[in-house]
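Quick one: co-fold with iron/sulfur cluster.
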Amino acid sequence: MSSALNPDAVTQAKLWYWQRISAMVLALCVLVHLGGMIYAVRGGLSAAEILGRTHGNWLFGIFYAVFVFACAVHVPIGFARICEEWLGLKAGAAWLIAKALGLVILVMGLRAVYGVVA
Amino acid sequence: MSATLKVKVWRGKTSGSFVDYEVPRLESQTVLDVVTHIQRHLDPSLSYRFACRVGMCGSCAMTVNGVARWTCRTHVSKVADGDALEIAPLSNLPVIKDLATDMREFFDKWAKSHGQFKGTKTRHDEFEQVRPESRERMAANAGIECIGCGVCYASCDVVTWRPDFLGPAALNRAWTLANDVRDNAQRERLKAVAGDVGCHACHTQGSCSERCPKQIEPTAGIAGLKRLAGRAAVRGELE
Ligand code: SF4
Ligand code: SF4
Ligand code: FES
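Sure, here it is.
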């Protein structure tokens, strides 16, 4: 994605694809996440109880890892545009910041998933 | 309905100021009538542009109380804020003088989007048969009535942020041609309209579709171009 947001039709078309696919994954993830939360806390729950259930639950881990990956794809693409259009940054600078943000989301997200599951 | 309208009209070029005029209020008065009254009776040096006065030529668009509109088909009663009207030139275009904008770039972008039909047949060939109910013909129909007024272009924030963006009208034109089965320059056109100054820059928020006086939806056409470009990229046809 290094040449992204230059006037490169192929790159833009592919970014659009990634943006759409990640959006679909996110939409599904958000629904499952909200549903899961409402279900889990219906009788009131403490942090300890939740961790007790999530520890060692690898299905839970895989689901949230997918969630994190989808965020790490989706957010930088939109963020680079905001940097360009609202902050007036050049494409190169905008993408540098956006990629750094993507990396931060990925690392922090996966770390959180690991903390809850392992 | 008060007897007079308090009208603020932009005078000058890109730098300038609003000047106040009082214009008699009439039944079924259009915004273009108001501008014409000012020029004929109050200040003959006022510059503006119009031709058909019936919503066909697309030359009379201005910003009326903050919103881009065709002035010949916009009734004062619909847009006046009490008895106040503020009339400015269209946004996103250089101002030549007063209410007249320089629309060259707007139309140059139609050319950049390969807005010309490219066929192979000559007058000696048989007519191509295009079924009116075919999907392509119906998609083209939805965008074909554009009068080139620039209302959508002036309403698009992305044009403001990215001055190179081809804009809704040019992309709508490209979309109608992308659905013309007789046209044989599809690949070049798609290459011209894909990318970050083309369809991929659009945020799909729909200001253009909301404001188009002809009820065209450039937003839908641009989404269509994104789909075509996505498919072409996967097949390696955009290289
Ligand atoms: S939908 Fe796209 S083209 Fe239309 S106003 Fe919004 S950004 Fe501009
Ligand atoms: S699409 Fe609508 S608003 Fe845009 S130039 Fe054509 S007629 Fe005017
Ligand atoms: S004067 Fe022709 S569209 Fe308004």
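If it helps, The two ends of chain A are 32 Å apart (CA to CA).
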